[in-house]
Task: structure prediction
Amino acid sequence: MSINESSTTTTNNTIVLITGGNTGIGLAIAHALLSAPIEPYSIIVTSRSIERATAAIKGLYNDPTFKDAFSSGSEALPMQLDVDDDESVKAVRQRIGEKFGRVDVLVNNAGTSLADLTTVP
Ligand SMILES: NC(=O)c1ccc[n+]([C@@H]2O[C@H](COP(=O)([O-])OP(=O)(O)OC[C@H]3O[C@@H](n4cnc5c(N)ncnc54)[C@H](OP(=O)(O)O)[C@@H]3O)[C@@H](O)[C@H]2O)c1
Result:
């Protein structure tokens, strides 16, 4: 189980960052990638709470549906991220830079709201 984000990794996996990936559409995207992997992925699942992100990751590793993906080299790991907090964004950028050196795919899922559109005169 690769939920330790502290070590440096050299990988040819496609690095996927899913903001707000611990539930809803973000988590469904992680499920889709792991259900029919075209290639091995390193999927970073974020939440404002590291506990919620870690719980989501444990759910992925405990789901037999994704066993083949993980045994074929895919991995998933949690990170704390609040997209409304510049310091949090900088910290995640630094952690991913140190661990992977890049992001290949950004799923910019968190922090979008249509609420303001309903108040436009
Ligand atoms: N569902 C729809 O029909 C629909 C329609 C149009 C657009 N969208 C948009 O699609 C995205 C996902 O929708 P959803 O239905 O899957 O929403 P959701 O179930 O409420 O999930 C939102 C995710 O974003 C995280 N999150 C919330 N605020 C955050 C912040 N400031 N920084 C980082 N992460 C944050 C939440 O995790 P934590 O709370 O643990 O941080 C959660 O993982 C949203 O941006 C939504 O506006 C959804």
Summary: Residues 19-20, 22-26, 47-49, 52, 81-84, 109-114 surround NAP (CB under 6 Å). The first strand starts at residue 14 and ends at 18. The first helix runs from residue 24 to 35. The two ends are 51 Å apart (CA to CA).
